[in-house]
Amino acid sequence: MKRFFAITLPRLVLGALFLISATDGFYFLATGAHLIHPPTSARGEAFEGALIASGFFWPLLKAVNLIGGASLILNRAPAFGLALILPVITVIIGFHLFLNPQGLPVAAILAVCSLLLIRAYWPQYSALFEPERR
Predict the structure, then answer these.
(1) How far is residue 120's CA from residue 134's CA, in Å, rounded to a whole number?
(2) Residues 111, 75, 71, 32: is their CA dihedral positive or negative?
(3) Mean pLDDT score of the chain, rounded to an integer?
(4) Which of 7, 41, 84, 109 could be disulfide-bonded to 68 (CB atoms 3.0-4.6 Å)?
(5) What is the pLDDT of residues 38-56, one digit of tens each?
(6) What pLDDT, on the 0 to 100 scale, is given for residue 20?
(7) Neighbours of 58 (CB within 10 A)
(8) Could you tell me the pLDDT band of residue 109, with boundaries at 50, 70 and 90?
(9) What's the Rg (C-alpha) of the chain?
(10) Is the full-model pTM beyond 0.90?
(11) What is the residue-wise DSSP string for the chain?
């Protein structure tokens, strides 16, 4: 039961959130409309608009969301999937802290799930922090 709440549930929650985000993002690219779009402040909309207007970043972001989310949901290389989406999660948390405070509950869920999974997958990440051997 402890494994379910410490690893499986956070993995499935993050995977689902990122798969939904990727689906919405690709739908937006195809149609110009969102399937799901939570309330966003004017500054948040400007930030999102800039990402979309760049022409390359939005599809890249949604591809990373898709690969990371699928990896977590399917439990195939979940430590890799988490490593892919951790920078995105960091930006999402900053986005909600500074530009769109009404989304702080989602940011808190992302932070808690991420920290639980970092702890669970630490053996896979720990080698990144060891001194280089020559």
Answers:
(1) 29
(2) negative
(3) 94
(4) 84
(5) 778 999 999 999 999 999 9
(6) 96
(7) 18
(8) very high
(9) 16
(10) yes
(11) -HHIIIIIHHHHHHHHHHHHHHHHHHHHHHHSS-S------HHHHHHHHHHHHTSSHHHHHHHHHHHHHHHHHHTSSHHHHHHHHHHHHHHHHHHHHHT-GGGHHHHHHHHHHHHHHHHHTHHHHGGGGSPPP-
Cβ-in-10-Å burial (0-12, 13-18, 19+) of 86 comes to: middle
Structure tokens, 99: 């530009």
Q: So what's the pLDDT on residue 95?
A: 95
User: Tokens for 106?
Assistant: 């989602």
Judging by beta carbons within 10 Å of its beta carbon (0-12, 13-18, 19+), is residue 71 exposed, middle or buried?
buried
Name the residue among 118, 122, 113 with its Cα closest to residue 18.
113
